[in-house]
Design a protein that fits this description.
- This protein is mainly α.
- The protein has a domain at about 40-100.
- Helix content is about 80%, strand content about 0%.
- The protein has helices at about 15-35, 40-75, 75-100.
C-alpha cells in the first residue's frame, strides 16, 4: 500500500449534500401535494354551501309568498303570512338536514 492513496476512499461532501438536497426536494414535493387543497373536495363543499343557501332562501321566500297570497285571497292578513313563513322555515331546515345527512358524493 502506498502512502499516496488512503486505505478508504473518503466520502465526498458533494455526494452527501446532493443526496440531502434530493431528499429535501422529495419531502417538499410530498408536503406541497399534501397541503394543496383538493379541487374536487373544494367544489363539493362549495356546491353543498350553495345548496344550503338556496334551500334556506327558497323555503323562507316561498313560505312568505304563499302565505301572503293566501292572506290576499282569504282576507286574514297577518296569519297566513306568519303560518307560511313558519312552514317555509321548517321545510328549509328539513331540506338542509336531509342534505347534510347524505353520504358525500365522489
Amino acid at each position: 500500500m502506498s502512502d499516496e492513496t488512503p486505505a478508504r476512499e473518503p466520502i465526498g461532501e458533494d455526494a452527501r449534500i446532493d443526496a440531502l438536497e434530493e431528499r429535501l426536494k422529495a419531502a417538499r414535493e410530498r408536503e406541497e401535494r399534501r397541503t394543496q387543497p383538493q379541487a374536487q373536495g373544494t367544489d363539493a363543499n362549495y356546491r353543498s354551501g350553495n345548496r344550503a343557501l338556496a334551500d334556506l332562501l327558497g323555503g323562507v321566500l316561498g313560505g312568505l309568498v304563499l302565505g301572503w297570497l293566501f292572506d290576499w285571497l282569504a282576507g286574514t292578513l297577518p296569519w297566513g303570512l306568519l303560518v307560511g313563513l313558519a312552514l317555509g322555515i321548517v321545510v328549509a331546515f328539513r331540506n338542509i338536514i336531509r342534505a347534510a345527512n347524505r353520504p358525500p358524493e365522489r
